Amino acid sequence: MTAYLLAGPAEEPVSLAEAKAFLKVDDTVEDGLINTLIGAARLHIEGVTGKALLAQSWRLVLDNWPEGGVVKLPVSPLLSVTGIAATDENGGNHDIALAQFLSEPDRLVVPPVVIGMPALRTRQGLEIDYVAGYGTEPADVPADLRQALLGLVAHWYEHRDAVIVAGSGAIVPSGFDRAVASYKRVRL
Questions:
Q1: Burial state string for 70-91 with b = 16 or more CB within 10 A and e = fewer than 16
Q2: Helix/strand/coil (H, E, C) string of the chain?
Q3: Per-residue confidence band for 177, with pLDDT thresholds at 50, 70 and 90
């Protein structure tokens, strides 16, 4: 299973103005740095939690349907499935009808018999395109994740010159892990 980001979010969950107000920065001298920190903080939170904060397009490539008929999505929550394509043994592409699939926030449920399914090529025979995220607007992102993002931006802004020596510093502020803990995917 391989996942590819096709298109990132149209905007960040926290605006430059919100971050500057949180940092108590009035001038425009460091706007570029703050914008970079916002994007980096979003990516960090998404990496730690496996959740897309705002709508993003992803492609999941599989060799075949998994045993048990459940495709666990590496990035969630699922907003919509936009396409499923199968590649047959001869290299021909086939679009699979989406209406036959059920979806949950972090998975796609495959029916016992997939209508229109060809005999797949041995490797990378399935491509599932989907949109993941809490929504399309910054207000759709849970407040505690937005707060964690602001806290991370502030920490990185204040400690940008710090050299982290083993045990003398932290990449995330105190309390960050607790703020995002309930969003982390539990693996058994």
A1: ebebebbbbbebeebebbeeee
A2: CEEEEEECCCCCCCCHHHHHHHHCCCCCCCHHHHHHHHHHHHHHHHHHHCECCCCEEEEEEECCCCHHHEEECCCECEEEEEEEEEEECCCCEEECCHHHCEEECCEEECCCCCCCCCCECCCCCEEEEEEECCCCCHHHCCHHHHHHHHHHHHHHHHCCCCCCCCCCCCCCCCCHHHHHHHHCCCCC
A3: confident
Tell me which residue of 80, 77, 14 sits closest to 51, measured CA to CA. 77
Render pLDDT for 71-106 as a digit per residue (tens, 0 to 9): 999 999 999 999 999 999 998 999 999 999 999 989
Q: How far apart are CA 80 and CA 106, in angstroms?
A: 11
Dist CA 128 CA 173 (whole Å) = 37
| Region class of 26: left (phi > 0), else alpha (psi between -120 and 50), else beta | alpha
Q: Would the pTM count as exceeding 0.85? A: yes
pLDDT digits (tens, 9 = 90+) for 4-45: 999 999 999 999 999 999 999 999 999 999 999 999 999 999
